[in-house]
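User: For a benchmark we're assembling, each entry needs the component sequences followed by a predicted structure for the full assembly. Here are entry 17's components. Please fill in the structure.
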Amino acid sequence: MVFNWFKRSFDRTDGRSNDSSNDPQEERSSDQSAGSQPPEPSQQSLEPPVPQPDLLAWAKTAYSSLQQQSGSPIESEPPIAEPSDAPSEQETVPADGASTELLPFWLQTETDAERQARLESLAAPEPFDESFLWSAQVLAAQGRQPTEITVDEIKWLKRLRQGLDKTRLSLINQLKSLVGQGPLDADAVEAIEALLLQADVGVAATDRIMAALQQKLRQEILPPDLAIAYLKELLQHMLDAPGDRLLVPEKNQLNIWLITGVNGAGKTTTIGKLAHTAQQSGYRTLIAAADTFRAAAVEQVKTWGERAGVDVIANPTANADPAAVVFDAITAAQARNTELLLVDTAGRLQNKKNLMDELSKIRRIIDKKATHARIESLLVLDATLGQNGLKQAEVFSKSAGITGVVLTKLDGTAKGGVAIAVVEQLGLPIRFIGAGEGIQDLRPFSSYEFIEALING
Ligand SMILES: Nc1nc2c(ncn2[C@@H]2O[C@H](COP(=O)(O)OP(=O)(O)O)[C@@H](O)[C@H]2O)c(=O)[nH]1
Ligand SMILES: [Mg+2]
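Assistant: Structure for entry 17:
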């Protein structure tokens, strides 16, 4: 049995793996009158179902189980930056046989000493600290068994939480002092609004949150922790509004995911991570290098393909027609029974119109040539850009038939609230989040995990 990282559960072996009845998020999606109505507050819905002493026992069991596994530290890779320029020569790059040692010096971003230090730090055991306990709580609350979890799940949650540290600490400390004293007065309203705007939640979502919060606190006197629990529930509800079913490629058929977004948003890196996730989850996967605007971009995606163990279909001629690359890739995918074809695209051309025309052309080719494929068009957004990133994204979301968002760089200076702005302003579900430059630093989006990382304490 293969662990399907897209579903976050094991695939059944009969091939009908897209049965999502086991999805932990499935149940919540049934209540999907979505978004417009704020939820009723409930005391437990965002609290872990295990009482504290049990949580500690859970965490201890998980910790000793991880220590037993620790013989094989998790390998993570250095980032692959888009090189400044390089000729592109080959048509199809076979994934196997290639290694980073063979890379030209301009792709080797890490010295031997740096690599050694990094590997040593990876081999060190995770400390049993507050952040481990928090990760354990998040996993336990999702019904996971302590003996099943892996060190990379803990590392991932810790990284996500750490990325949102600044926002979380500022939000939680100030919120505690602002709510819990009955209805909000004008000063408190203004202060909470400011907090949300600083966290990149955006004006539209902030207005909606404030209206719901004020109404609730007028109706009921809630102590600070319950008022904050209500706010968390409200935010989670907003994040789930466009549909919180996980995006899982269907087995035994062609799925095509078109990856779009402005330059530098993290498209190529996301392709590498998705290819790795798909490979690990047992999908026959292929990449189309349809960002032909610069030869260096083709080289970069080829390197990611090598890392993930996934073949890359590219065109050797400079400035090749991206739609032709996609055509070739679909032909190859059909011949090989590929299940997931990931299409890298350019984020910048001579002008916006050219870019949109090119994306439309790629889309037409896909629709025409792969009539039975399941097609997703994912917009990659750099979370550190906040509202500016959203403005840039609006043009894509209008013209490229986008079906979902991948939010990247949540490990950096991102304030996190932008996730709520994305959903409110673009009306699109967040499908994956990236928090790091390594191949494993991507996960299907979970509104529960995200809100716990954003507001907790
Ligand atoms: N810290 C961090 N950096 C990222 C993440 N995703 C991408 N990057 C970096 O962002 C830069 C641009 O990424 P790239 O994939 O080339 O963007 P593209 O132009 O949209 O294809 C690279 O230096 C990546 O390593 C992330 O989740 N976290
Ligand atoms: Mg790129």
